[in-house]
Write a structure and sequence with these properties.
By secondary structure, the protein is mostly helical. It contains 5 helices and no strands.
Length: 156
């Protein structure tokens, strides 16, 4: 594959990643427009809110989503290298970011349905997760070039 095609594929990944990251800011804006009172922290309230069981379940779901984002991305990238298809790199990035975006959506649910004042922790975790999935050019290269003889890697 030519260098220009690899560069275009990488640029596409960067644009997708940035768009998915930017969408997280929109969640904060939507919550601010709908429920501005949630941005005033009241530290006298319990940290898990009025529904600690639901908050705990949502915290567990957020952590599971974060772990799944890395697992699914890794599987997709391995398949991209094995089959030499850059499309799987893009799929892996989108899947990983979608799992992280789901974390932020859990925060939105906590904000709107339960008026939970620490909803921003979920959105922050979603943003960090997406940040950790920043696309790497090496992944595109690995999916676009056959393994070279003598590169030190062996297939089993």
């Amino acid at each position: 594959m030519s260098d220009s095609k690899i560069a275009k594929n990488y640029q596409t990944l960067l644009i997708l990643w940035f768009a998915l990251l930017a969408s997280q800011v929109m969640f904060l804006v939507i919550i601010f427009m709908a429920k501005p009172g949630l941005y005033r922290l009241d530290l006298a309230k319990p940290p898990l809110g009025e529904n600690p069981a639901i908050t705990g379940v949502f915290a567990l779901l957020a952590l599971v989503n974060l772990v799944l984002s890395f697992v699914m991305k890794k599987r997709s990238y391995e398949q991209a290298v094995a089959e030499q298809k850059i499309a799987y790199v893009q799929t892996g990035l989108i899947l990983a970011c979608a799992f992280c975006e789901a974390i932020s959506l859990l925060g939105m649910i906590l904000a709107f349905a339960f008026s939970y004042q620490f909803f921003f922790v979920w959105i922050a975790l979603g943003i960090v997760g997406i940040g950790l999935h920043f696309p790497r050019r090496d992944d595109v290269l690995a999916a676009s070039c056959k393994k070279q003889i003598g590169s030190g890697t062996s297939e089993e």
